[in-house]
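Continued from yesterday's entry.
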Amino acid sequence: FSVGGDRFPPTALASMLAKYLRERLMESWNAFWQLHLPGIKPTAGYPLDARRFRREIEPLARELQLPLELWWRCK
């Protein structure tokens, strides 16, 4: 890690690509759950809202037999 590292073009490009990919993956994530739970409010995945989203999808995730470790980041 380097403070201000994004001033280097390869690092800046990698950062932009990572942010773009995260946004596309979050769109897919939300689309999957909205297919199963119409009307669920999408999440951007950041901590406060992620907890709300987890509470809303957890019963269905159990019903779909999706283990928590598969879809929830455990540090």
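--- second protein ---
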Amino acid sequence: MPLYELTFAYEQGRLSMRDLDGDMEVIDYRSGRHERFALARDGSRWDQYRASFGKAISAYLQSIREGSPPPVPCLAGVYELQFEAGIKRSIAVGRPIILGDLFPLA
């Protein structure tokens, strides 16, 4: 069983992802394109995530040491948490939600 399966359906297409090591499928109804993207099977997205996380933490700590702004603004992290909370809420209620209504940031 995958850790997650996520599908974004919109008027002109669909984007589907399944687990960190699964393929990503993109369908564009306007052009009729149907593409599937996959990692080389000799590695894991977990390995990529671990390496990426290490780089992000190093860059953040460097910004603290130098007294410079962080490479990714704090609000970007808040938006990510809002998005994740929205996914959980949508699953719990079984329907789409409007993030700004349930989790306003201003």
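Residues 1-42 form one domain. The chain has three helices and four strands. Will compare against the first tomorrow.
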